[in-house]
Amino acid sequence: MDLDPVRIIEAVLFSSPQPVKISDMEIQTQLPSATVRKAVKDLTSEYEKKETSLRVAKVGSGYALLLKDEYAPFGRAFAPKEIPDNILRTATWIAYHQPVMQSDLAHALGSKTYTDVRELHELGLISMKKKGHSYVLSTTKKFPEYFGINGTSPTAIKKYLEERAKGN
């Protein structure tokens, strides 16, 4: 039985909690590179044309099956929360103000942020570089991939956060 490569890639994206790189799709599906690339392109086009709440998005260096922005609030209500709100608040502050000194972050948000920073660092979402008696904090490449932000630069992340704050 020959399976449709587009449906195979759809299954991969549906099943993965994180964006998937083309190279990883090739390895896991054993499909040729050109077939995987065409399947991603066809699936993206298919979801753009469908009246559905889903879309295929390029997120960082991979692809993900995500909710369209207008449907995201409905899905969020039922999605399991992986990162508690207080840590999200700290992550947002770092992402918006990066690079930021950890001492400045603690001054702005309180000493609890030291624990938050440790957890964000363990998740691979932020980097910590020693500077004097403190650390300089910045987002990693994993940060925009994890949160579905299209772009890895601090400017792209800041723009995304500003749009979300406005409700766009």
What key attributes describe this structure?
alpha+beta; two-stranded antiparallel sheet; single chain; 168 residues; three-stranded antiparallel β-sheet
Unreliable residue stretches: none
Using only CA atoms, what is the Rg?
18 Å
Average pLDDT works out at 89
Number of strands: 5
Helical/strand content category: alpha+beta
Proportion of strand residues: 15-25%
Pfam family, one: SMC_ScpB
Protein name: Segregation and condensation protein B
Keywords: Cell cycle, Cell division, Chromosome partition, Cytoplasm
InterPro entries: ScpB_csome_segregation, WH-like_DNA-bd_sf, WH_DNA-bd_sf
Descriptive notes:
Helices cover 54% and strands 15% of the residues. It is of the alpha+beta class. The strands form 2 sheets. A 3-stranded antiparallel β-sheet has the order 3-5-4. A two-stranded antiparallel ribbon has the order 1-2. A hairpin with a 2-residue loop joins strand 4 and strand 5. The protein is elongated and about 60 Å long. The N and C termini lie far apart (45 Å). InterPro entries: ScpB_csome_segregation, WH-like_DNA-bd_sf, WH_DNA-bd_sf. Keywords: Cell cycle, Cell division, Chromosome partition, Cytoplasm. Pfam families: SMC_ScpB (PF04079).
Quick overview of this protein structure:
InterPro entries: ScpB_csome_segregation, WH-like_DNA-bd_sf, WH_DNA-bd_sf. With 168 residues, the chain is α+β, with helices and mostly antiparallel strands.
